Amino acid sequence: MMSNEIMSSDNAMPPVSSASVDEIKPAENERLLSGVAASALFVICVGYVAFHLYALNIQPVEPWKFRLIHVSVGLLIGFLVFNSSNSFSSQGASFGRGMGVERASFILSSCVLIMVLAIWLRIPSVVFDEHSEIFNNFLSGISLAAVVVSLLSSYFYKTERGRMSRSDTALGIIALAVGIYIIQSLGRWNMVAGTPMASDVDLYMSLIGVILILELTRRVAGMAMVVIALVFILYAFLGPWLPGVLEHRGYSSNRFFTYLFTDNGVLGPTVSVSSTYVVLFITFSAFLQKSGVGEFFVNFAFSMAGRSRGGPAKVSVLASAMMGMINGTSVGNVVSTGPMTIPLMRRVGYDARNAGATEAGASTGGQIAPPIMGAGAFIMAEVTGIPYTEIAAAAVLPAVFYFLSLYFMLDLQAQRLGIRGLSREELPNLKGLLRKVYLFLPIIILVVSLFVGYSVIRAGTLAIVAAAVVSWFTPYRMGPKEILNALALSARMVVPLIAVCACAGIVVGVIALTGIGARFSSLILGVAGDSQLIALVLAMIISIIMGMGLPTTAAYALAASVVAPGLQSMGIPPLVAHFFVFYYAVISSVTPPVALAAFAAAGISGADPLKTSIASFKLCIAAFLMPFAFYYSPAILMQGEGFIQILRVLITGSIGVFFLAAAVQAWCFKALNIILRIMAFAVGVLMMLGSVETDVIGVLMAVVILGIQFKLKDHRKPA
């Protein structure tokens, strides 16, 4: 707990330091290798990202082959980096019986890889002639044995955190073997995958690939996504016995599992995005971190907003907006900026719950802020066929309203509670920071490149180069060693997203194979009847539920496959439909009872996770209403309206989010009683809807509220 002396003295505090904001804190189950193992992993990671950059910019690779390399080597890195649990052994505990099982798993997996390479070199056809089926049967059996032994070994025999696990190395080798097997038979695979003609060895390799994707997803993202994927897999086999719209004819194992490794499943849109845009912009994020630009972002935010009332909370909004739009995940943003912003919020008087809620809400907002929007904008462009630049432009006003809402929430809260800002002595020197304003150049180059017509890939690559160049004018100058470190870091950062995207691809594959998406859309239509509003409410509920416990990328990918088509079939424009489900998929990370971003922030602040998630839900209330505003006022998405209309929506929407904030905080210059809070909430809703009629009514009600306010006696606590 903080003392009153700390809270009241401006001069007792040391200056704010954001030197650690660029440090990526390892996950609890992430290995911290040293020696030869660390060097080997480093080389693999650097080579992995370098291959992607080379293929994207210089020499393209056939799409299926490129995605298979992306997934299989990504799985290899994932198993080398992430342990099966959050606990590691003490020194020496991994020897004895465990050592023998680990060795067996490694030998079996090596045999699988050798046999797959032998197939690639056509050795079986030479040795076995027409009896090569013997070889295939042996390969199938030893592959299953290898993955079972390796999984059991990784679960039951722990290793030290600084030591490579043989069983996890074996799992990585098997993943690599699966990728090589499909690549070497790609010509045949294109014809037989997803058909009864797929062989048994095709089945076993696909099955093993699915198992490994699910296992790595469990390690990096928890059980939620795995459970969802398993439910969909079971659905593929239980269809003949299910009632109503859920019924389907069922599928053989050969057909089902091989189908998942086509561009309708794992190799489909989600992995297409992760292998291109996600890798590119995660690499950009890593370069920004290694070049010290991230630290500059945070310092700049402190210098701009730190002295205002509730300063650290407003800093959290600004810093998280700048970092979150790049790093691809709300949880990752929380653990990156939260360790600095949350203690500072506590310093000036915020309790642990509100400090954590503020950081969670701000970090979540980064996912809806252009130009990058995590990976959401790129997935949307891939799924809808709408140009990326149009999607990024459409996201501008909603992002403005979101962060304005948070700012107003925090300002009114600070005004109500009498929370101060930081003193001048505690803040970075603004003049010194303005001399380093060139550090914004990578972002500026990215945005300008995109909007002058460069491809996303080319713009992202230019931004990466710019981040390296600007570092030469900072203490974090990036030479060859630092560039290689950034490439290695980006590989470790991208692996969790690869696993999640591949796992989402499994779900997408089941939806495509069974047609459940179309039937689900029909169900929405049947329940909603002719009412688009009811359909939107149902879509909201489903998108939030599907997104609980999932990273943003996976949440949107699922919602885009299941919910968005139903909205489009009712006549809702594709951009509106996809932005609608995208927003609810994003804010599911701050929606109780499963709110990943809020839970991560609570872990830093020490508050109760559920109470923190409820507080973050209140702070983000505008985001829950905004998707409906997209429907009623397409001008918010820059659709079909002139400049004057867009300007009017900007002004009235800004007034609307202010009154929403006032209603939640029970404060608007002075305390609001319950009647005035209801009126303020109504003003917010009316003015966000965007029509002239609702704007006029909203303005009249706002005048009434302000008139009553000025007649009330001032006091600090709300009624």
What features would you describe in this structure?
71% of the residues lie in helices and 1% in strands. With 719 residues, the chain is mainly alpha-helical. The chain folds into 3 domains: 35-262, no CATH class; 275-504 and 514-632, no CATH class; 641-719. It has a two-stranded antiparallel ribbon. 54% of the residues are buried. The model is unreliable at 1-13, 92-96 and 715-719 (pLDDT under 50).
Short key terms for the protein model shown above:
719 residues; 3 domains; two-stranded antiparallel sheet; 2 strands
The residue ranges in which pLDDT falls below 50 over 5 or more consecutive positions are 1-13, 92-96, 715-719
What does the overall shape look like? globular
**Cross-sheet strand order for the largest sheet:** 1-2
Distance between the termini: 27 Å
Count of DSSP H/I helices: 34
Q: What percent of residues are in strands?
A: under 5%
What is the structure about, briefly put?
This protein is mainly alpha-helical and 719 residues long.
Write the layout of secondary structure elements.
Layout: H1 4-8, H2 35-57, H3 63-81, H4 97-120, H5 123-127, H6 133-156, H7 166-184, H8 186-192, H9 200-221, H10 223-238, H11 253-260, H12 269-290, H13 293-305, H14 311-327, H15 330-348, H16 352-365, H17 376-384, H18 388-394, H19 396-417, H20 430-434, H21 441-451, H22 456-470, H23 480-514, H24 516-528, H25 532-547, H26 552-562, H27 564-569, H28 574-587, H29 596-605, H30 609-619, H31 621-632, H32 643-665, E1 667-668, E2 670-671, H33 674-688, H34 692-711
Antiparallel strand pairs: 1-2
